């Protein structure tokens, strides 16, 4: 005989009408005053929640993989045990109500019109594949003509760019990149570049089938005026807009109806304290293609709508998707809930960014209003970062030799008509650190980064010291050979003259 669905972990509230949890409707992604169960979390409790972090590492890189507090991990473990205790019962009775509860919490958080608009997927990369796969089919099935355009930002995330090429360009699309300036001075500069790129995409009457717009770009990290760009797409007749907002929820307010894209995805494991890996994909119920989207992994639920397809993609661990409510409970232990967290993160990351820029004689990569909880800071030009590989090697060295975890960006782009930005010594700034601030960070984390870079500068370090020996040797050998030839030539001329 079938047993009743298992209870969710702890005493999480029930879901009604697709809007469980009593959260407000999205605009600020803020907490409901009614759902503030305990006293504000203390500094000691925050430390305890992140006691599993490597205490030796100064992790100023929440952006790459996020973080998950112990209380949410404990809830996840309860779900995992529930599954393993009686897998059949869990799959047939517990899983879907649990996922619905999470989807309803997300729907309320981001202002979705209905829970049916929200699917849970593993990550933003998967969400992008869902959208790109649909675009590819539109080419293959003749709804789009060969050569129709897809527009994306130059700073689109690498995996998403590859997804666009692998699915859509391969199916016949022309890909047009929006060349954004960096360092960036204003939202207007981004809007102007976007308009210009749309003109290129539409040249000769070409149709623009899809625009892929980041909400917060990864590297370099900049908040994109996404609502304005979506509005421009609508005015210019772009068929549909996918917003890759992998970093957004927990960093900036998200109101999907206000933004108005066709597809909007955000990870919940980056800035919303869920364990890896869980993201949501919002698709407008009234949008023309919502019903035609499919998960790239075809399973039992194929054809029953994306939320159902995504909720059963074979046997796997769904526990990360089942603890969204516990993550919400966690953020509500902070003054102001998630809104308070991101406001404080923003203030702190700007303060720390300015401290580093001052110590290094550099500057921030964008004005504070284009930053959330991450900020780009120029590194001293004398470090000589001259390629993506250089940037990766310096990052690895900072991790290994100084126990600092921070991504480094190599800026190869020159803004047309402008000189490369320079540091206080007049050296061009080609390398930038992307620092994050999350609730577990302390000032000493950033001071360690500051001191590490200052030490490198004082020791005369340059990135070429980290280049593979072969290359360095071969360039040195080439120089040696050239010298010998020159010496030989002079000797020969000398002999002739004598
Ligand atoms: C803008 C952007 N898109 C997509 C992704 C991919 O996220 P995930 O690895 O969780 O799929 C990232 C990851 O950092 C990102 O920054």
Describe this structure in words.
Residues 102-379 form the Aminotransferase class V domain. Residues 1-11 have a biased composition (Pro residues). The chain is α/β, with parallel strands linked by helices and 498 residues long. It folds into three domains: 118-312, Aspartate Aminotransferase, domain 2; 337-466, Aspartate Aminotransferase, domain 1 (Alpha-Beta Complex), CATH 3.90.1150.10; 469-498. It is built from 15 helices and twelve strands. The chain has helices at 43-49, 62-65, 70-85, 87-110, 124-140, 158-171, 187-202, 226-235, 256-259, 306-310, 324-331, 337-360, 388-402, 443-458, 469-497; strands at 58-59, 118-121, 149-153, 174-178, 208-214, 240-244, 263-267, 279-283, 374-378, 404-405, 408-410, 431-436. The strands form three sheets. The chain has a seven-stranded mixed beta sheet, sandwiched between helices. A three-stranded antiparallel beta sheet has the order 9-12-11. The longest helix has 29 residues, at 469-497. The chain binds pyridoxal-5'-phosphate.
Number of self-contained structural domains: 3
How far is the N terminus from the C terminus? 110 Å
Please tell me what the overall shape is: globular
Bound molecules: pyridoxal-5'-phosphate
Largest sheet: 7 strands, mixed
Structural class: alpha/beta
Strand order of the largest sheet: 2-8-7-6-5-3-4
Rg, alpha carbons: 26 Å
User: Could you state the oligomeric state of the chains shown?
Assistant: single chain
CATH superfamily of the largest domain: Type I PLP-dependent aspartate aminotransferase-like (Major domain)
Chain-averaged pLDDT: 90
Task: Please estimate the helix content.
Answer: 40-55%
- Helix-strand sequence: HEHHHEHEHEHEHEHEEHHHEHEEEHH
Count every helix, treating DSSP H or I runs of 4 or more residues as helices.
15
- In CATH, what is the class of the largest domain? Alpha Beta
CATH fold call of the largest domain: Aspartate Aminotransferase, domain 2
What's the architecture of the largest domain, going by CATH?
A: 3-Layer(aba) Sandwich
Topology, number of strands = 12
Unreliable residue stretches: 1-27, 30-34
Portion in strands: 5-15%
